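Q: Can I see a sequence and its folded structure?
A: Here is a first one.
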Amino acid sequence: MKRLGILGGMGPAASAEFLKRLVEKTPAACDQEHIPAVLWSDPTIPDRSTALKAGSDEPLAGLLRGVNGLKASGCTTIVIPCNTAHFWYDQMSDLGVPIIHIVESVAMELNNLNVTGTIGVMGTQSTIEFGLYQKMLEARGWNCIVPNQTDMSMYVQPAINHVKAGELTIAHAFFNVAIRNLIDQGASAVVLGCTEIPLAITEKEMYGVPLINSIDSLVTATINEFNQTS
């Protein structure tokens, strides 16, 4: 039986939101038509952004433990509703269970919306600094712009921290400023490349520009995968 593994806990609210949206968006008329899933929620995995800045692989042991746990539970495909965890994607993939890459799911959504040209990308400081989205999207023909350091330090990273603290109204106001600034710089779409952001930004577009949130794109890719392989 096909079974989805969700490697979560990074953070817990984003993992719960992924599962909630997966249930909501799956075209199912009864319980038995939903995707069988196992959630491995481990909030003790060390902070990914802190490790990247330090040049450390400290989170890797916890990530591999999670993948192995899901593999032992019979999961045939894994998703990770955490963007920064994907910096260790290759090492996790080496364990032999296919993992749907979150950036690939965003690229699929951009293609489905026929978005071309310049893409704004928001995420944690490490996601932006180490180019998780920029490298993969620019290789596929998009030009990426990111918040400047002032916007990152004053709005984006503080907003992510407010989401983790459950302060969504404050986070929304902060994110709004950074999104508007990217649009003002010519972004034809803005990627919400941190799974905390969609908890505060629920709009599908802002100022007439589509917002691509990585939770929903990962949900869509997951449903597509299971529809193809069921």
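Q: Show me another, different protein.
A: A second, unrelated one:
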Amino acid sequence: MLILNVQHWEGDKPQAMALLRLIADLEPAKREDVYLLVTCRFDGTFDEESIEYASQKFNITKFKTTRKATGWPNGPNQMAGESYLFCVDSFRNGRFPGATAVMFIEADCVPLRKAWISELYDEYKASGKQISGCWLKRADAGIEHVNGNCLISINFWRRCKGIFWPDVKGGWDATLRHHMLPVAHPSKLIWSDYQLGTPKNPWKGCDYLWAPKRFNDPSNALYGQDLFPCWYHGVKVMDGLECVRNRLINES
């Protein structure tokens, strides 16, 4: 059992809800083996229409955070930590029976295959590790860490209680790398590009999402391999969602 944790605040709410609808549309039938948690920030609101739409394919739980930080990095850090804590507490109280992992999903993501949920979960289980995600090295991200759009064991808190209150200067994932890396597996199915769609790294066209990806750092465990991910994190514009709809659902 996997918990998909779709997170948003008001600024990225339209893209997050478009992603939520796409995730639902890619599933042919309702999935009883996947829980979907929609998390919004303390000052946000839920898009009830989109949530109702997605409930045709998933059993959905809503959660509004209480921590008051807003800017980066503390805003998203506290949001991720509190939503994970909510999953753990809910699991311990019987709300998500059978759950083994939580996948953090930010608004700037796209799935690239219809079978992405099962592919990611199967890779996670086969690894035997507590974390499965895009493993970045210095040449790829400035610091070695597993990107936060990853699958994390529901029991990771036993190793790293600091995930609940990340007191950091940067992203929680990079800050907690010393706790995460020893129990992490480099995913071949998750790719991260922080700047795609911005002036620094402009949109490269629809085909780019499905083109082979390669890490830059020779010390990366996956260096030199052509990777064909089923999940892409870092699409800063709506173009990614639109081209996935065109490619996978035949919508113009």
